[in-house]
Design goal:
This protein is an alpha+beta fold. The protein folds into two domains: 114 residues, 2,3-Dihydroxybiphenyl 1,2-Dioxygenase, domain 1 (Roll); 114 residues, 2,3-Dihydroxybiphenyl 1,2-Dioxygenase, domain 1, CATH 3.10.180.10. Strand 3 and strand 4 form a beta hairpin. It is globular.
Length: 263
């Protein structure tokens, strides 16, 4: 089993651009809490209510993710959204606009937890920007039930990579392959996220979107549990260079991947 880690220390500020939080907005918050509570062992506590009812998901007392209730008339796709760290959300939001992105929500204060905005890149993929004060981000990684990786699924990586480089200062490292369009985003020499160009395999009904991977102890057992709890298996478990991976959706249709790290 991988060792539990407190990212950069639990009270250390994340370097700008580091994925530091994931959040999910749904229509049935209580049912969604039940699903993820059973699946990942999360417990829930009230969180900032600026955008409506919101809870923090905790694992062994550590913050790992957030979930909120959408207004009844909200029709956008239900999706996990990664938040990227910023030292100045307002300045980052301005840069997003200058580089061809859109800021849909904020910047606004999330009570004493921090300051946030929700934006989309030029390809339409939605992401959050987080300037933490009381809540700096996910407080534990490297154990089952915690976010392990975030990956942008998009048509092609070249133009969108330039956007994220310009806004957050990433260094990029493409995978050298004739038939695989993949770029890894690096900060301080460390891989922090990926961009996957899918071409015409990108689902037309979704368009470009970010996907969160959660670590699990046993991918195959997790898939059985997802199905038993009312979710769906979208792609069965298969072995990859980074571990055994599968993609699923929760009962409201939010897609995510699970990864069982090789021991």
């Amino acid at each position: 089993m991988t060792e539990a880690r407190e990212p950069a220390g639990p009270h250390a500020r994340r370097a700008p651009g580091t994925p530091c939080w994931v959040s999910l907005m749904v229509h049935e918050l209580a049912a969604t809490e039940e699903f993820y509570g059973e699946l990942f062992g999360w417990e829930f506590r009230p969180g900032p209510q600026q955008l409506g009812p919101y809870v923090r998901a905790l694992l062994n007392g550590h913050d790992v993710a957030g979930m909120g209730q959408l207004p009844p008339d909200h029709r956008l796709s239900i999706a996990w959204t990664p938040y990227l760290a910023s030292d100045d959300v307002d300045q980052t939001a301005d840069t997003v606009r200058l580089c061809g992105g859109t800021v849909a929500v904020g910047p606004l204060d999330a009570a004493e937890a921090g300051r946030m905005a929700i934006a989309s890149d030029p390809s339409g993929a939605v992401f959050g920007i987080w300037q933490g004060t009381a809540l700096l981000g996910t407080a534990i990684t490297g154990v089952p039930g915690t976010p392990a990786w975030n990956e942008l699924l998009t048509f092609e990586t070249e133009s969108v990579a330039k956007f994220y480089q310009s806004v957050f200062g990433y260094e990029t490292e493409p995978v050298v392959s004739a038939d695989f369009d993949y770029v890894t985003l690096h900060l301080g020499g460390r891989a922090v996220a990926g961009l996957h160009g899918m071409g015409h395999a990108l689902p037309r009904d979704r368009g470009s979107h970010w996907r969160t991977y959660f670590e699990v102890a046993d991918a195959d057992a997790t898939l059985r549990q997802v199905a038993a709890l009312g979710g769906r298996v979208l792609s069965p478990a298969h072995d990859s260079a980074h571990g055994r991976v599968a993609t699923v959706s929760d009962p409201e249709g939010a897609e995510f991947s699970v990864i069982q790290n090789p021991h």
